[in-house]
Design a protein that fits this description.
Blueprint lengths: L1 H8 L7 H39 L2 H15 L1 H11 L14 H29 L7 H29 L2 H28 L5 H28 L5 H12 L6 E10 L2 E11 L4 H18 L3 E11 L15
Parallel strand pairs: 2-3
Antiparallel strand pairs: 1-2
């Protein structure tokens, strides 16, 4: 009987082979998206670099550096996706999914470095103006940069949302911002063509500011992940799912956390105090099952069942000093 009682009211786990396969498949999709987008952005940056060397445009240089930094963000993310596919161990009992958060720190550092270098070159050109050559090619490079980044952005965002990777979605939004800065290069070429020599370094400074805005948003998102923040709407959804499970009398604490691009949940529910052990166990399993299958990107859930009543009973009295 003690063993049955412990099993009925202990946390329940739903780690199935299907969920493991789904996690591995999502990592494979993420890696494929990174490889393809890395190749596209490197090709874009290489073409722009050739034109920078011939034209001397610092606005285009800033955009090229930004595109290069965006391409390089695929490397730490790729390592993180690869690590995330490894099985949990006795030391890393939750697996290696948090490697994505560490990759996010590297991404923020790369964005900051590209902003610093672009800003330095723009200020240097303001102090020592120089003629921008091959304006037609500069403008064409800006258009190529916009097209390459927008294609990469759409691909990364689509895959990131499908597999639940906030890091990949953020990287896609970063690429979309890069595309807009590429269009600014076209404006710098137009200004130079109109006889405004300072248009190029001024646009370069504006691109630097745009990079800094992306840096701020990326740093905030990574900080939220490191602090285990989740969208409150996810918590509300989980509470609504649990409340709809037959036999759940009340929903207690609901805790969610992202581990890489997968969610884990720890929840408390109350069942009738006069329910049999088997009935209470069935309610807990049903709640766990509903959560995993109805809450997007949830890979595992732990459900703790408490008896709801009788009035005045304190089923956690022995733990009161620890809470």
């Amino acid at each position: 009987m003690p063993a049955v009682l412990a099993h009925a009211f202990a946390p329940h786990s739903h780690d199935s082979a299907t969920k493991t396969d789904a996690a591995l498949e999502s990592s494979r999709h993420g890696l494929r998206a990174l490889v393809i987008s890395f190749a596209a952005l490197m090709a874009t940056a290489a073409l722009q670099a050739v034109i920078v060397a011939r034209s001397g445009s610092v606005a285009l240089l800033g955009d090229t550096l930004h595109n290069l930094a965006d391409a390089l963000t695929a490397l730490p993310l790729g390592v993180a996706f690869w690590l995330g596919r490894r099985a949990a161990t006795r030391r890393f009992t939750y697996g290696y999914g948090r490697a994505e958060d560490l990759a996010g720190i590297v991404i923020v550092a790369l964005i900051a470095a590209s902003a610093a270098l672009a800003g330095y070159q723009a200020v240097k050109r303001l102090i020592d103006p120089a003629e921008v050559r091959l304006l037609g090619l500069v403008a064409a490079a800006g258009v190529v940069g916009f097209a390459g980044n927008e294609l990469v952005a759409r691909y990364r965002i689509r895959v990131g949302r499908r597999i639940g990777s906030a890091a990949l979605v953020a990287d896609g939004l970063h690429a979309r911002t890069d595309g807009l800065t590429s269009l600014a290069v076209v404006l710098s070429a137009a200004g130079a063509a109109l006889g405004l020599p300072l248009a190029d370094p001024i646009i370069g400074l504006l691109i630097t500011i745009a990079i800094c805005l992306v840096l701020k948003d990326a740093a905030r998102q990574i900080c939220h992940r490191l602090m285990d923040a989740v969208d409150p709407a996810l918590v509300e959804t989980a509470e609504r799912i649990l409340a709809g499970v037959p036999g759940v009398e009340n929903v207690g604490a609901v805790r969610l956390r992202w581990i890489g691009h997968a969610l884990r949940a720890e929840v408390e529910i109350a069942v009738r105090h006069d329910a049999t052990l088997l009935q209470a166990h069935a309610v807990a399993v049903a709640a766990e099952h509903r959560l995993i299958h109805e809450l997007p990107h949830l890979r595992a859930a732990t459900v703790h069942a408490d008896p709801d009543g009788p009035p005045g009973a304190d089923h956690h009295a022995i733990l009161s000093a620890h809470r």
